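User: Let's play a game. I give you a shape written as tokens, and you guess the letters that built it. Ready? Here's round one.
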């Protein structure tokens, strides 16, 4: 069995913590031969964990891609706005790529990346890890098997969780769309992808509503301060207290481990005192929505209502799929799927076992599939190829376009054509690396 060799660009939470456990467990299948990461702390940690030598470490992706081709494929796990250039350069250099979602915060760049991958005959797979989870694969199977007849409509709720929302989208890297991406893309492109996959048809029309309503300075409680450590009068009772949240044991609260590297108590307190994670949630530079709905109609007549909210107890996805012969209800957090048959009136409950891998088994699942696709030279029409993911990205961009224009209806055919025509004749060539 051919061993697949990989290099990693971006050794943060996703590049290291999410995908490297698979490499460590299956050394006969896959090997990492290089890493590019600007943080020396992260480079050192990565090198020690993956047994890399000094000559296999790079501080920038340009440095790594400036070398003769090192391996079969790259994992690109940088921030949203840092995907396009290394991806194009890697594809042009002959690498296959596993790219963290979203592809880009620019629809034109998404279109171009997919086109270059196709032109070069390379596998560009997007980390829509949810498709690889046993929960969502069971959902897909039930639909394909005709268990509920023809799908008519779907209601899909993304419960972000109030603490997750405050950490990632008020204080964290995804708080401002000029630094990352709009919420519908940064967080909910997983959901757009799942919806497109379950419906199995192109989207025809999109409209969306939502706003940043709560986490604004005018809603700051009386007596609050710029930072939780500035003598805030309500810190002890505030649900978003940085001191209470981030000084918890990191094994009990994985978010606490993400604000400092390494996450010692001293380093975390320094991050609270000086960095964005200690700011009052009502006084940051955040601008992404804290709630949003998207309405969709697909070419096969299926209608979908998607709702994202930052004001929920749990981090969860709940879905209801309504068909001509029955109904499916799913609760991802509890791994519970209910199937109701109209003819017999019977309710069946399917319990999905909990996975130890991240994203309910999706992180392991995508690594396993990517390695298998490379080994068997499957470069097109894979489960989360750029070709498959582009449509759901465009759905997200269309939803944001609608939201910013008062909920105006977006015709997806015209929306797609506008980016296809813009990209024509402007295909990016080799970069300077």
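Assistant: Ready! My guess for every position:
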């Amino acid at each position: 069995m051919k061993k697949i060799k990989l290099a990693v660009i971006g050794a943060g939470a996703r590049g290291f913590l999410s995908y490297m456990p698979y490499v460590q467990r299956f050394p006969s299948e896959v090997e990492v031969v290089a890493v590019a990461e600007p943080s020396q702390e992260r480079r050192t940690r990565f090198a020690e964990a993956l047994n890399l030598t000094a000559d296999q470490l790079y501080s920038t992706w340009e440095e790594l891609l400036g070398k003769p081709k090192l391996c079969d494929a790259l994992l690109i796990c940088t921030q949203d706005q840092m995907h396009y250039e290394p991806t194009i350069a890697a594809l042009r250099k002959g690498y296959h790529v596993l790219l963290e979602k979203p592809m880009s915060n620019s629809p034109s760049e998404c279109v171009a990346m997919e086109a270059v991958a196709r032109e070069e005959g390379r596998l560009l797979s997007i980390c829509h890890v949810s498709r690889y989870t046993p929960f969502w694969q069971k959902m897909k199977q039930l639909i394909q098997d005709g268990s509920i007849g023809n799908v008519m409509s779907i209601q899909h709720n993304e419960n972000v969780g109030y603490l997750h929302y405050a950490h990632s989208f008020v204080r964290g890297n995804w708080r401002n769309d000029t630094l990352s991406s709009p919420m519908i893309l940064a967080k909910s492109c997983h959901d757009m992808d799942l919806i497109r996959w379950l419906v199995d048809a192109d989207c025809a029309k999109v409209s969306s509503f939502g706003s940043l309503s709560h986490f604004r300075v005018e809603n700051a409680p009386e007596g609050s301060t710029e930072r939780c450590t500035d003598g805030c009068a309500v810190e002890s009772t505030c649900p978003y207290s940085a001191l209470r949240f981030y000084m918890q044991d990191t094994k009990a609260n994985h978010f606490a481990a993400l604000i400092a590297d390494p996450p010692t108590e001293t380093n975390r307190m320094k991050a609270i005192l000086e960095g964005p994670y200690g700011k009052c949630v009502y006084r940051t530079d955040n601008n992404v929505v804290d709630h949003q709905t998207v309405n969709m109609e697909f070419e096969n007549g299926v209608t979908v209502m998607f709702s994202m909210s930052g004001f929920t107890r749990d981090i969860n996805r709940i879905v209801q799929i309504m068909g001509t012969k029955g109904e499916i209800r799913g609760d991802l957090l509890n791994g519970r799927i209910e199937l109701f048959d109209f003819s017999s009136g019977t309710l069946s409950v399917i319990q999905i076992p909990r996975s130890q891998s991240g994203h309910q088994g999706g992180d392991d699942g995508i690594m396993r599939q990517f390695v298998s696709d490379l080994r068997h030279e499957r470069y097109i029409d894979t489960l989360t190829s750029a070709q498959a993911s582009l449509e759901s990205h465009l759905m997200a961009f269309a939803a944001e376009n609608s939201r910013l224009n008062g909920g105006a209806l977006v015709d997806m055919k015209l929306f797609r054509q506008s980016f296809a025509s813009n990209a024509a004749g402007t295909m990016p060539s080799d970069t300077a690396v």
